[in-house]
Design a protein that fits this description.
Layout lengths: L40 E4 L2 E3 L11 E2 L14 H12 L14 E5 L3 E9 L4 E6 L10 E6 L1 E2 L5 E2 L1
Antiparallel strand pairs: 1-2, 1-3, 2-8, 4-5, 5-6, 6-7, 8-9
Length: about 160
């Protein structure tokens, strides 16, 4: 007596070869670990950040490979502009392990996806896609992120 299978689990056609994929993304840094970075890195109360001058002396941190702690800015507008041009916005190879092209999540009022556009001593400039509509003059918004929370989302 022949048996009849109720379900045929063999594929009807052979599987297609996989299409060329996008460049491989690096695995995110595990929470609690300090990244190898061009700027100093600290981990405090489950948040990853780059300590600034005046703070770095008081906390345990990993020194940056290229830069020391970012100097404090002046409150006076002209001095602040000079600080931004000469210290804060100096390009870096990475910021706390983030590199241009990395896809991350950004903590706004909700969690949103974003892509790192560039990095500097101050932080990482991230482009967050915007929904299309008549009110949007460009397809994305840009913001700097400087910290990562315990859930792996970046924020300022």
């Amino acid at each position: 007596m022949d048996s009849i299978a109720l379900f045929d689990l063999t594929p009807a056609t052979p599987p297609k070869p996989a299409a060329p994929s996008a460049p491989q993304r690096r695995a995110p840094l595990p929470l609690g670990e300090l990244p190898v970075s061009s700027v100093p890195a600290a981990y405090d109360r489950e948040h990853l950040f780059s300590p600034k001058e005046g703070t770095a002396e008081h906390i345990s941190h990993r020194a940056g490979d290229v830069f020391g702690p970012l100097p404090r800015s002046s409150g006076e507008p002209k001095a602040w502009a000079i600080w931004w041009r000469t210290a804060a916005s100096v390009p870096t190879p990475d910021f706390l392990g983030l590199k241009a092209g990395d896809d991350i999540t950004v903590q706004l009022s909700t969690v949103s996806p974003g892509t790192v556009a560039r990095t500097c001593r101050f932080g990482a400039l991230v482009r967050i896609p915007l929904p299309q509509g008549p009110w949007a003059d460009k397809p994305y918004e840009e913001m700097y992120v400087t910290r990562r929370n315990q859930f792996g989302h970046w924020y300022r």
